[in-house]
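step: validate -> pass
step: tokenize input -> pass
step: predict -> running
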Amino acid sequence: MKMEKRNLMIMWFANFFVSASATMVLPFLSIYIETFGSYSDAFVQRWSGFIFGITFLVAFFVSPLWGRFGDKFGRKKILIITGFGIALSIFLMSFVSSVWELFFLRMLMGVVTGFIPTSMALISAQTDKKVAGKVLGTLQMGTVSGGLFGPLIGGALADSVGFTYTFVSTASVITLATFLVIFGIKEVTAESGEQANEKKKSMAEVLLMITRDPLLITVMVISLIVQTANFSIQPQLALYVGELLTTENVAFLAGLAFSATGLGNLTATRFWGTQGDRIGHEKILLICLLLAGTFFLPQAFVPAIIPLIILRFLFGLAIGGIIPCVTAYIRQAVPVKEQGEVLGYNQSFRFLGNVLGPAVGGVIAGSFGITAVFYVSSMLFFGAAIALYIILVKNRRVKKRKDLLLHH
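step: predict -> pass
step: emit ->
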């Protein structure tokens, strides 16, 4: 038990800094691009979007491979490779002198972003199914905290020590976190636990296993829907806050509205995971989706900034249970030898949502106005809840039918 707690603590710390590194460039990305030359505002805005988004787009394709390699060769090895890979790509960002060089390094960072899903798989594999939600919810707090504080840390460092030292400092901390993994993590492999004698499935067999399980594929698509809906409004949020205000500190208040969701997420993620252990993770997913839609829709009608911030916080509370409950459900439904790969596919769905969300939100806002983004995204949450409910009812009927056949 002590080993599991130590592993969890180390991975929490490591995930915090890896997650923070992915978002820390947000506050100063456009300013950093401007240091490379004299560019138009349109050029800077366009390349800011390309350079930020390319990491998630590449990660979408690569995540399942890291998961598979982790299942096959050991998850600790993959954590070390990806940890040092992220640190190296961030360190090299301090020396770039063109948008193409920065774009390439963010692309490289996407290649090595298997760290977080691999850490989830490592902790999941050594966690009792009965407390998987609570443990994975705790681990998720590290990831959420990093994403929440990353922009704040990045902005503060850039202001105080400049861009170069910001990248060097971040790379150094991630290197330290990776050394903690090397010397502090003891991996419990699949062979020492359940399904030890089962043969490892091929990628085609794993994909077939996922597609043949309606609840499993629905749970993973929910990850895509949540990220798409959540990220759909984020690029428009500052503009929306500007419409609600007459003051000049729009950027600060937009940041506050943005951070309120992360704070809500951080507050609730362990609670939802624990409730999932108690009554079933699929039931908690259904509750979270309904609450997410309920708190997202009214954001289209707010008359002032304070109600928006409150609703953003409540929305964060609602979606806080989705990632730990999805991960805990995969822990229960998938053999240990395939968990890393399946979690990799789930992470791919999330990364795809990170890319699709801003693009879809931009198209909707440009065509029908910013409030239309809230309507469409709310419908996505409610639609996902309806689909999940239908499959849960169908599964319950199938189970009852099987039980009756067994009794006869």
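step: describe -> The two ends are 43 Å apart (CA to CA).
step: cleanup -> pass
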